[in-house]
Automatic annotation (TrEMBL):
Organism: Virgibacillus dokdonensis
GO molecular function: RNA binding
Gene name tied to this protein: licT
InterPro entries according to UniProt: BglG_antiterminators, CAT_RNA-bd_dom, CAT_RNA-bd_dom_sf, PRD, PRD_sf
Name of one Pfam family that matches: CAT_RBD
Family annotation (SUPFAM superfamilies): PTS-regulatory domain, PRD, SacY-like RNA-binding domain
Stated name of the protein: PRD domain-containing protein
Keyword hit for Repeat: yes
Length: 279
């Protein structure tokens, strides 16, 4: 059972679990005529969000209206449905906090363009497409017309929520690195990569996990048979050379130690991208 701390509206409550965790609970009628100390069956919840450690949930809720919180939860559900991925619970808090600023006119008059915003639609095509729908939801439900660039920033929140224990700063760093890797491929092969294909989406996903493994120093977590690795090196010589260029770049910039097993798996994706985009 959950113990109500505060009913935010008929469909949103702040509650405490049996483990003494503060949770934001969504559910039709879950907060109707409820008061502090009342018990609620968790089975009536349609969505549960737990704040990250050291986050002051009550202070956060004082700054975010229930209407904005409801729209944020609606966008999170949209993201999970369209992307077919379970998103980290922290997205409710980070995205709601961002939207609180984004719906303030002062934010857009003082906030300068981020050059990365032009790359995000191509690096994270699926997340960006969902985010365009999210911008429309905000307009329909809250009456705020956001600039087009906001879809790019919302997309970053979707990306960040797919990476375990990652901060937005780390997600932006990963995005910049992926951008540089894609540039290496395009320059070496002299191709303009189609960012809307399934193979490209799989490649970006592989890069995310590749970078995550390097950051966590999980060098032995991915291995390949030596004979197969040798075949890949000999058969896809240009893609393998591209993989070595990427290895050199990340080792120099981040002081990572990238294994040749990692490179071999990366080469498979690079070759697919090249074959798909060659003229």
């Amino acid at each position: 059972m959950l113990t109500i701390i505060k009913s935010l509206n008929n469909n949103i409550i702040l509650a405490k679990s049996e483990k003494n965790e503060e949770l934001i609970i969504f559910g039709t009628g879950i907060g109707f005529k409820k008061k502090h100390g009342d018990l609620v069956d968790e089975s009536k919840a349609t969505k549960v969000f737990k704040a990250e450690k050291n986050m002051q949930t009550r202070t956060f809720l004082e700054q975010i209206s229930p209407e904005l919180l409801a729209v944020t939860e609606k966008i999170v559900r949209l993201g999970e449905d369209k992307l077919q991925k379970k998103l980290n619970q922290s997205i409710l808090f980070s995205l709601a906090d961002h939207l609180q600023f984004a719906t303030d006119e002062k934010y857009h008059t003082t906030n300068k363009d981020n050059p990365l915003q032009w790359e995000i639609p191509y690096l994270y095509y699926e997340e960006y497409e969902v985010s365009k729908i999210a911008v429309q939801i905000i307009q329909d439900d809250l009456g705020y017309t956001l600039p087009k660039m906001e879809a790019a920033f919302i997309a970053l929140h979707f990306v960040n929520a797919q990476i375990d224990s990652s901060t937005m700063e780390e997600t932006i760093q990963i995005t910049k690195l992926i951008k540089n890797i894609v540039k290496i491929i395009q320059r070496l092969f002299e191709v303009n990569i189609d960012k809307t294909t399934i193979n490209y989406s799989r490649f970006i996903t592989h890069l995310r996990y590749f970078i995550a493994r390097q950051k966590m120093k999980q060098r032995e977590s991915i291995q390949m048979d030596e004979a197969l690795k040798k075949t890949i090196e000999e058969r896809y010589m240009k893609s393998y050379a591209c993989g070595l260029m990427i290895k050199e770049m990340v080792e120099k910039e981040f002081n990572w130690e990238v294994t040749y097993d990692e490179i071999a798996f990366l080469v498979i994706h690079i070759e697919r991208i090249f074959q798909e985009n060659r003229s």
